[in-house]
Amino acid sequence: ILRSANLREQRSLSGTGVVVGVISSGTAGVEAAKRSRDLPADVMVHPDLIGSGAEGTAMAEIVHDLAPNARILLAGVLPPGGVDSPEFDSVAAYMEAVRWMIGHGATVIVDDLTFPREGLMTAGRLTQFISNLVADHPGLLLISSAGNHAGSHYAAISSLQTAGAIDLDLGTAFNLSRRINSPASTEIPAP
To answer: Which residue of 3, 20, 133, 156 sits 20 to 30 Å from the alpha carbon of 139, by its own alpha carbon?
Structure first.
């Protein structure tokens, strides 16, 4: 579908020398994926963060399909049983996973997580952690999903306001309205 093999061939790219960290809910099935060669034999899983489920393993398989020579690190930050709770601090687990991955050479870290107790578009522990991380590791590429809730995601037409701000009317479902600042040169494609 993505024709990644064509791109790799045209650009001589394979992921060689790149270490990619994958953080998701769980790491189940890694050994089976290694045996089936859907993942390389040298995938490293955080020893204390295996999580719940196999979503992280599936993400790592996609990374491997796109960049077959990249080294892959994996962590699962959902507690056993799969339900985030006050007894389990998923933000602390995420931060530990990121530190571990950087310590093992990751230059790209991807995740598909949501942290509902951090608040919507507010500055909390995670915001401060990411700000410090970017300052301390300027070559690090962090990629995070913009939401992973199927049909319950935010969807609306946004309007470009003056000074390069996008006004998102989050309506009564979220009971708030926020502005996201973007450079004035940002193009917003029509739906």
So the answer is: 3
Contacts of residues 84-91 at CB distance under 8 Å and 24 or more positions apart, as own/partner, are 84/116, 84/117, 90/115, 91/115, 91/117, 91/118, 91/124, 91/125, 91/126
pLDDT greater than 70 at residue 13: yes
pLDDT in tens, 63-74: 999 999 999 999
Sequential DSSP letters for 123-134: --HHHHHHHHHH
CB 118 within 8 A of CB 125: yes
Least Cα distance to 50 among 82, 92, 18, 87 occurs for: 82
pTM for the full model? 0.75
| 144 within 8 A of 113, measured Cβ to Cβ | yes
Extract the runs of DSSP E, i.e. beta strands, from the chain: 19-24, 44-50, 71-76, 108-111, 141-144, 159-160, 165-169, 177-181
> Both tokens of residue 107?
């230059």
Indicate if the pLDDT at residue 1 is higher than 70. Answer: no
**Cβ(76)–Cβ(50) under 8 Å?**
yes
CA angle 33, 43, 9 (to 5 degrees): 85
